[in-house]
Amino acid sequence: MDGGRAAAVGGDPSPIAAPSNPPALSSRPVDVSSFTHTPCYCEENVYMLCNELIRTGVADPAGTDLYVVFISNEEKKVPLWHQKAGHSDDGFICWDYHVICIQSRRSKEVLDFVWDLDSDLPFPSPLIQYVSEAIQPLSFGNSRYARQKPYEGS
């Protein structure tokens, strides 16, 4: 559903304005409410999130540490947990696609983070925690949702 196409959220989306100066990641936790968020418009939300991370100095000035990740599959059924739009205790929902931002400074001393405005996990979440708790790759075994390794040639 993300992108406004699943059945979990209804009604007209209404933007929520962001304060002008969210705190820097290095100084204190970043509050998810300090970013613009329009329900069901994950790609636009992530675009604005990345711009704000750059503007406030949380990300590299050129944005080279930010990666916009579209999560989808052929079936257009992306199961995710810990989503605010989920109607169960574990926040499960099946989006048709979802978009997140991964911040990676490519350093062993600094964690990679996932910025997901639609998640109820910590904001931002360490990449390892997000994959484990929101994506839960081990939940599907050999189902059609299992990740396939790309062909690497011989």
From TrEMBL:
- Mind telling me what this protein is named? Protein N-terminal glutamine amidohydrolase
The record describes its quaternary structure and partners as: Monomer.
Task: Please state which protein family the record places this protein in.
Answer: Belongs to the NTAQ1 family.
Q: Which GO terms describe its molecular function?
A: protein-N-terminal asparagine amidohydrolase activity; protein-N-terminal glutamine amidohydrolase activity
Could you tell me the gene encoding this protein?
LOC103630307
User: What is the species of this protein?
Assistant: Zea mays (Maize)
Q: What is its EC number?
A: 3.5.1.122
Q: What does this protein do?
A: Mediates the side-chain deamidation of N-terminal glutamine residues to glutamate, an important step in N-end rule pathway of protein degradation. Conversion of the resulting N-terminal glutamine to glutamate renders the protein susceptible to arginylation, polyubiquitination and degradation as specified by the N-end rule. Does not act on substrates with internal or C-terminal glutamine and does not act on non-glutamine residues in any position.
Composition bias, Low complexity: 13-25
